[in-house]
Amino acid sequence: MSLELSKRIQRLKTSPIRKLTPYSEQALAKGKKIYYLNIGQPDIETSNLFFEGVAAYKGKILKYEHSAGLKELREKIKKYYEKYNMNYNIDEILITSGGSEGLQFTLNSIFDENDEILIGEPYYANYNSYFDVLNIKCNAVRTYAENGYHFSSLEELEKNITKKTKGFIFSNPSNPTGVIHTKEELDNIAYLAKKYDLYIISDEVYREFVYGDNKCISFGTYKEIEDRVIIIDSISKRFSACGARVGCVISKNKAFIESVYRQCQARLAVPTLEMIGAIALYDVADNQLEKYRTMYEKRRNFIFNEFKTIDDIIVKEPEGAFYSFVKLPVENAEAFCIWLLSEFDVDNETIMLAPGEGFYATEGLGRDEVRICYASDENQIKKAMNILRQGLKEYRKIKQI
User: Fold this and answer.
1) Is there a contact between 80 and 90 (Cβ–Cβ < 8 Å)?
2) Do 346 and 218 fall into the same domain?
3) pTM above 0.85?
4) Do 65 and 196 share a domain, yes or no?
């Protein structure tokens, strides 16, 4: 008789964002330099306000804090949302260990095994971790590179809804595509949520990063469906504080918030010092956040111009966040990404990309796509795009593509 792991954990797949780590480690062991375009890690320095806030802590005991999160932090988040004309009470805001825990608690609260969730694909690949563990069926609505990954129609969304569908989830601005969904798209989702009695889980961690004439509308402004809207948020990207792991879940649905709160109690508390640092981050001036946004927009413009110099790729100019989803002239993007790390370099430098297939629910889609993060300075982007350009030429020559 042999010991076995749970079926639940056996369903859990490797994150495509980190899947190629063994190959990157081998490349590093060979002395290669790698430009990491696979992961959404901002290079902007975390504000000193965070570290000063932590350093100012004078407690003699690092004790458990309230399971809902520090009251002062929830007050700061409340004031932050008021700037966007969204009014929440602090008992409608729960602090979580990053947006990821907030998402996990949200899905735990809403979905039973074999329930279904509606989502546009491609989508943030790590959602799959929770879908797999909780045995939630993913009803995916395909979007296309050719039209910038926008939803095609109300009918296309509606035909994927069944009696088992309990909610819709998306990120806006989008990770991984950089799309910002229009008011018409959001209106369609709101209409379907009312018609079929669905929850809307809105991942809005990239809210500030909006470029050009685009506007990002929060589902928190839809008063007529406020009882079914759940917002997932985080300090990770907005304040370049990914390692602090401080996020939140926000909703006016009292029963839902109570269910999430019970899970917050079960895990006791979010780390105290990180919450204290996060309180200070909400004092970062609006003009500083605008500087971050302007910096990312400049990088967006730069990388898109670089894409124009690469033959036979399909990519639309990102509207927000700091990702591009790119269709490559190869049959297997994952094999190409591995080849870049294992066998190719330019002056002993190479790049790490995130293969696109893991961002889809439908088997076989995304095999020729990659997600590219441009949260790096222009000099690094330029070098990375040169490696991609030369790598594609060499790879297609080898594979006779």
Assistant:
1) no
2) no
3) yes
4) yes
